[in-house]
Amino acid sequence: MPADYLKKIAIPSNISTYLSRTLIFITVATTLLIGGVLIVLQTIQFKKISTQKSQDYIEDQKIYIKEIVNNEVSYIVAQNQNFKENIRKKIRQNVMQANNTAEMIYRKYEGMKSTDEIKSLIVATISSLKFENEYEEVFISTLDGIGVYYPRRPEFTGKNMRQFLDANGTPVVMAEINLLKTNLEGFLNYENDTVTSEKVYRTEKIAFVKKFNHFGWYFGSKQYVDNYFPKLREEVAQKISSVRFRHGGYVFLNHTDGTPIVMDGKVYKGDFNLLKKSDDPRHSVFLKELDAAKNNPSGEYFYYRWNKMNDTIPSDKCAYVHLYKDYNWLIGAGFYLDEANESIIKQQTLIRQDQKKSILIIFLILIALLFIETVIIYHFNKKYKSDFERFFNFFFLSQNSFNKLNISKFYFDEFKRAGIAANKMIMLREEIENRLIEEQKRATESDRLKSAFLANLSHEIRTPMNAIIGFSELLEDDSQDSEDRIVFVKLIRKNGDMLLNLINDILDISKIEANQLMVKKRPVKLDQFLIEINNYYTEALLSKKEKNIQFNVNNELNSETLINTDVIRLKQILDNLIGNAIKFTSEGSVSLDVKMEREYVLFSISDTGIGIPPDQQTTIFERFMQSEQAYKMNYGGTGLGLAISRNLIELLGGTIRVESELGKGSTFYFELPVS
Ligand code: ADP
């Protein structure tokens, strides 16, 4: 399954691969993410700054071209004034020259020649005056408006010119006469819009007149400003064409009629008209230029697209245009909007370089991080593998041993904790296994004991039964005398008692196992009881010829002492212990000592018998248990007496213990509470 395969690659089952892949993935992802975010932020910041810069640049450039255009307009205004001033100077100079000349002639010939001769001399002299150019002249008229001398219009001589209208319909002579009525001299300005079929243009004429009082004359000189205009135009065009500003910018100068004066930074001499050639790209630009100038003649921006030099794709351009009304000139300058980008591009290149550096640094950091990670992972792997190895070995060995982990050798705390838990587990297992072995041993022993018990039991039953049957048979024999018969009956009775005791023991042990053994306590005095015991065993030993045993009871109790106990069970206990002492002693003594010890009555039964090995001094109190000696030497018995006695003593609120030396004898101690 490809999905499973991919899952396995993405989430490997090996811890070290998983860890290293995860770490490397996180490192690479984090570094790339941080790097990417930084670069994106840098780019966004740059774009923001760029836009701002671009806007600032455009605003700045707009102000700049406006200043340039305004400068040129100021220059034209100044030039224009200058130019008119020159004309005025010139015509005045001409008039003054004529006036001075006439004055000289008059003075020279006054009284010598007739007035007419002088007049003719003056006219002749003035007509011979030389001026700078062909348009210049000085005319003479009387203060009444009768033509005296008009160099270009000889027909005016002697004619009344007061009603004369010039080409623009202005009564120029009348105006001159009127001026001189109040002034000796003065300038006259005539401005007219001349309408032709193609265009409307303004013509301006300047005249200067001065009275020549001797003959009632005045001299005058006039100039059409237009006559000098080409010169002005040329000067302005030259000046403007030489203007260059940032990024090769230039100033253009067009007439509103579409005639280019300065185009593409050069004085234009051809006959191209921007209005007429509508298929020329400059045509539409010129229309925009005109529109802008119409909207705001004192200066307006307009936008268009224009090819840069050596560029085929047009770029956005902004231009500022000012209409110079005197000549209907459009003066303007423009700049490419994307010029702003040049500096931005430079900055962009710098930022790109910075970004490249950043990427390199991020890459180097990444490599360094990966290297550090590799070292860390290597060390981690080494340590965790060695910890794991320890665990593997431990589990392997602990299959059949109780081998424990050396916790101090673990590197990681988690392993240490796991190691402690594992050691505890092993200890527990060891304990359980030991207990099981012990239990098993005990079970085997118990089995063995039960078999021995059964063997002993059958012996213990058969012996008195044989005696009872044997003596009963003898009783059946009539030949027996009566004395023998009494002995036989006693023997039958004795063996019957033995059997009954045995059955009682078996019953008691069953009750013990069923937790049903009961005691009935009542206050008793032990004096008589102990005397009876003494009598009973002294007598019993006398009949046992094979035993050479002294029996005595040492009662140290106060005769008034009352003890709260079950006297029948106490007798049973003492019978068991004294019986055993006698049984396991062939000669010497058996004694019962009774004394007070604090609130207890302490019973000690001592003998000089075979003794009990130390390792069996506790086990003999368990049911069916017999010491090795007793077993080997075939003493018989069932191994129930001590078990019953211990249980009875405990029920009566006491404890039992034994002190014994092998071959020398034993002393069983038990104590019972007084109350
Ligand atoms: P039994 O006497 O019927 O075997 P008991 O429970 O009375 O059973 O005694 C258990 C065992 O304790 C005896 O078999 C014997 O090995 C040991 N024992 C008890 N009393 C003495 C004693 N006085 N001297 C030596 N061994 C004794």
List the main descriptive attributes of the protein structure presented here.
binds adenosine-5'-diphosphate, 675 residues, Beta-Lactamase, Heat Shock Protein 90, 54% helix, 7-stranded antiparallel β-sheet, single chain, 13 helices, alpha+beta
Brief write-up:
Helices cover 54% and strands 20% of the residues.
Question: What's the layout of helices and strands?
Answer:
Layout: H1 2-10, H2 15-109, H3 115-127, E1 139-142, E2 147-149, H4 172-182, E3 185-195, E4 200-212, E5 217-224, H5 225-241, E6 244-245, E7 249-255, E8 260-263, E9 266-267, H6 281-295, E10 300-307, E11 314-324, E12 329-336, H7 339-397, H8 413-476, H9 482-513, E13 522-525, H10 527-543, E14 548-555, E15 562-565, H11 567-583, E16 587-597, E17 600-607, H12 628-632, H13 641-651, E18 655-661, E19 665-673
Parallel strand pairs: 14-16
Antiparallel strand pairs: 1-2, 1-5, 3-4, 4-5, 6-7, 7-8, 7-12, 8-9, 10-11, 11-12, 13-15, 16-17, 17-19, 18-19
Helix pairs in contact: 2-3, 2-5, 2-7, 8-9, 9-13, 11-13
Bound molecules: adenosine-5'-diphosphate (ADP).
Adenosine-5'-diphosphate binds next to α11 and α13.
Poorly predicted runs are: none
Percent in helix: 40-55%
CATH top level assignment of the domain at 518-673: Alpha Beta
What is the number of helical segments per DSSP (H or I, 4+ residues)? 13
Structural class estimated from helices and strands: alpha+beta
